[in-house]
Amino acid sequence: MAQMVLAADKREIGWSALALGLTALAFKGAAWSYPQGAGTIWLVGAATLVAVGLLGARDVWRVRRDGDAA
After folding, report:
1. Long-range contacts of range 57-64, CB-CB < 8 Å, 24 or more positions apart?
2. Rounded mean pLDDT of the chain?
3. Which sign, positive or negative, has the C-alpha torsion 28, 43, 33, 55?
4. What is the pLDDT of residue 39?
5. Contact of 38 with 31, CB cutoff 8 Å
6. Distance CA 22, CA 43 (A)
7. pTM here?
8. What is the pLDDT of residue 34?
9. What is the torsion angle, in degrees rounded to the nearest 10, for the CA atoms of residue 31, residue 37, residue 40 and residue 41?
């Protein structure tokens, strides 16, 4: 069975995109389930998405700096 091989930075970008998507989905579900607090939930969600994005960008930067050694 053939296995797809991606560069380390592409893998990190993929994981970061997946993390952002799952985080957004979690907050969308929370806002849907509690409409009275949807504004606050999305405010916290936006801050969380920024944090997740920054952490993902940091990992991509590290991989690009260090190469596949990480």
Report:
1. 57/16, 59/12, 59/15, 59/16, 60/9, 60/12, 60/13, 60/16, 63/8, 63/9, 63/12, 64/9
2. 92
3. positive
4. 96
5. yes
6. 17
7. 0.83
8. 97
9. -20
